[in-house]
Design a protein that fits this description.
With 398 residues, this protein is α/β, with parallel strands linked by helices. It has 2 domains: 7-192 and 382-395, Aldehyde Dehydrogenase, Chain A, domain 1, CATH 3.40.605; 194-367, Aldehyde Dehydrogenase, Chain A, domain 2 (3-Layer(aba) Sandwich), CATH 3.40.309.10. The protein is built from 14 helices and 17 strands. A 7-stranded mixed sheet has the order 10-11-12-9-8-13-14, sandwiched between helices. The chain is globular, with a radius of gyration of 22 Å.
Amino acid sequence: MKNVSIQWLLGDENVSVCPMMPYSQLVIDFLDQLSTVLRKSVNPGEYPDIISIAFWCRKGNILKLKEQAQDIESSLGKGLVFHITPSNVPVNFAFSFFFGLLSGNSNIVRVPSKDYPQTDIICSAIKQVLCDKKYDSIKRGNAFVKYGHEEEITDEFSSMADARIIWGGDESIKSIRKSPLKPKATEIVFADRYSFGVISLAAVKNASDSELKALAHSFYNDTYLMDQNACSTPHLIVWKKDVMGEDELMIKKTFWDAVAKEAKNYDLEPIKAIDKYTNLCAVGMEGELEVTTVNRWENLLYVVNLNKLPQDICTLRGRFGMFFDVTIDDVNALAPYIDEKVQSLLYYGIDRDELKRFVISNGLLGVDRIVPFGKALDIGVFWDGYDIIGQLSRRISF
């Protein structure tokens, strides 16, 4: 495609399409080598999201995923996957690319249109690994592109694709779906989602100093590292009232004090502070919310305490360190508030099986993940209820 609006970061329009079996040894070796290069490309603590990617694509992790897969020997990739990745999460495009590779496909990946150093670092590392002639077929079968919102470009790539993955907001998805696919093409859509956490008051009360610090650090990683932009980041903390008396407020304060200490590591740029305060003011003017108090730890942490939940909990969204807080007596009281928009349920001090029963027995439309704090951003081949590798490959019956 000859269009000056397209920036080809890797490869070109002549993508070679030759489906492979899922979890092919060639792809596993490529990803493991990429893991090594990525770990050497950044200093520890500089780009934790890149280190997370490197950890994810190492051979040990991929082999564990392969062990869980079924009918690999009778499956092939669908062909060419067109990936449209979000603009607000710098490294998401890499995970989407990995899913396409692992399912045995060639890929055209639209990276974020915004400029992120992570994009350059990851693309440079991929190019470095692809210099090895062993991976010539992967080099020929994949391309990374950057462009704006030109519909004709999306039309062209979509018409070529055997599968399309869209990561984005609901309105963006509606717009992209105007670009038609092949009649038999598969589409996987990761739309606007919402996540929240449940914490046992008793568990926090009984936690040691080291356990509380670990919980606060996990919470910080789940939220601040992505400016609360990730779909799996919790915005609402629901406290399970399993203590009696006046301990409740002190227990909550103990937790939020620990989070505030962790938040001192956060780079709160002036524009972020302004946006967060504006968001807080908007909450104050929202007549339908029953706000009891608002606690602030300087500008680093705002906690909006609610008397009860609004009917649509997905409206309770914060950014840059702003959270909502409510107390309930029983987890099952949350059932009326869970719809298809709810993705992840984070927990601490609650039995995982209790939460699983809560979702299954109530026949909830939402909650696709139940994970402890610290695992919110751990993306997997099962995401938003999709078996991604399975849906991007075709099974051949004999």
